[in-house]
Amino acid sequence: MSAAILASQLVPTGLPATLAATGTVPGGEEVLFWVVAPVMVLGALGLLFSRRAVHAAMSVVVVMIGMAVLYTALEAPFLGVAQVVVYTGAVMMLFLFVLMLVGVDASDSFVETLRGQRWIGVLAGGGLLIVLIGVVLGGSRPAAVGLEAANAASNPVGVARLVFGEFVVAFELTGALLITAALGALTLTHRQRLTRKVGQRETTEQKMTQLGGGGQLTPLPAPGVYARHNAANVPALDPTGAPIEESVPRVLRIRGLEREVPWPDVVGLIGPGAGEAGDLDPGSRREEES
Amino acid sequence: MTLSYYLVLAVILFAIGATTVLVRRNAIIVFMGVELMLNSANLTFVTFARWHGDLAGQVLAFFVMVVAAAEVVVGLAIIVSIFRTRRSVSVDDANLLKS
User: Fold this and answer.
1) CB B28 within 8 A of CB B79
2) Statement: residue A11 has pLDDT above 60
3) Which of B37, B48, B72 to mutate to test the interface with A (most CBs of A within 10 A)?
């Protein structure tokens, strides 16, 4: 089975409707166009007018998907698939990623550094629209041919013959461009480490050297251990029943949010000689407190 | 309906993208405007490929897509590095070269 037959089975060649002899598009495609095109224009206006960058990105995604639908209608199913994969799948997700990185709430400033820049920009955009529509609608062109002959061996095969034939040098240069872009992105976002990296070994060595001067090898006791409450602001009790100040997180201690041990008499309870089970029985302790 | 309507749609999208680039301040939104302009140029390529019955237009649109992907990678890296140093993505704040 040759590759052309395989490709024609994977991508149905009859998917896009062919042009009429007069160069007009068939009725079904016309309906599709009038459904998709207004949605795309609305999405583009959403990019222009939305305050929040995430909404703008979502409007652009709508435009990209509409563009993929139109490519498929324009007898370019390969480009339609590539549009979804490259633009909506990769490029717009990269945009959203960077939006999350720089903060979603980064809204536009409406202070004009150049006076009247907004109106000049709108005027230039409107002028561009009028001039380009004049260019597109004015002048005479031959009747549209359609891609029926060019897509005879399915659209991906036709495109591949050109890419790997006539345009193969440009295709190879594209590879160099992509590698350069990846390296550029790596070097642009690279950050030099200013301090030496502290690993597990360095941490242990530092703890060992500080052991003589009151340091501690083991982790600090968790707050609330052997205390009646296990809240973070209640200190743990040591074996003699005295509270351990270091067990409360440093931030709480500095802010003065630390709580006293609410039952100082318990220190005497589990002091020396408090090994009997009856003393530690919760019921007897409740009697002591009341 | 002839194929000219696709060209008109491409022109409208191009003009909206250009206005976005001129008016908006957020560098990421400006960048999305550039992407919109590239896409409308692609739509023109594909429409003319169908018009003339020549697949070269589709191949060029494909190359535009590849170059746009590379451009997005570098551009977003620049935006991220500017954001790291200046804590802002507004194009007005990148004025270190101003005397």
Assistant:
1) yes
2) no
3) B72
pLDDT digits (tens, 9 = 90+) for A229-263: 677 777 877 777 777 777 888 888 888 877 776 66
Distance between CA A88 and CA A252 in Å, rounded? Answer: 47
How many beta carbons lie within 10 A of that of residue B99, not counting itself?
2
Answer for the pair A8, A154: CB distance below 8 angstroms, yes or no: yes
For A33, name the nearest residue in chain B, comparing CA atoms only.
B6
A136 in B contact zone (CB under 8 Å): yes
Q: Helix A92-102 to helix A53-73 angle, to the nearest 10 degrees? A: 180
The amino acid at A25: V
CA–chain centroid gap for A270, Å, is: 55
Please answer yes or no on whether B2 and A185 come within 8 Å at the CB atom.
Answer: no
Using the Cβ of B17 and the Cβ atoms of chain A, whether some distance falls under 8 Å is answered with yes
- Closest C-alpha to A203, from A216, A191, A190, A213: A216
CB contact under 8 A, B28 and A102: yes
Bridge partners (DSSP) of residue A236 are: A244
Question: Best residue in B31, B36, B40, B84 to probe A by mutation, most A CBs within 10 Å?
Answer: B36
Is residue A93 pLDDT above 70, yes or no? yes
Q: CB of A168 within 8 Å of any CB in chain B?
A: no
How confident is residue A13, by pLDDT bands cut at 50, 70 and 90?
very low
pLDDT digit string, tens, across residues A60-71 = 999 999 999 999
pLDDT digits (tens, 9 = 90+) for B43-56: 999 999 999 989 99
Write out the H or E segment, with its range, that includes residue A55. helix A53-73
CB count, 10 Å around CB of B24? 25
Query: Residue A21: pLDDT band by 50, 70, 90 thresholds?
Result: low
Contact with chain A for residue B86, Cβ under 8 A: no
ipTM for this model = 0.92
Inter-residue contact B52 to A77 (CB < 8 Å): no
Between residues 203 and 222 of chain A, which touch chain B (CB distance below 8 Å)? none
Confidence of residue A283 (pLDDT cuts 50, 70, 90): very low
Q: Which residue type sits at B45?
A: F
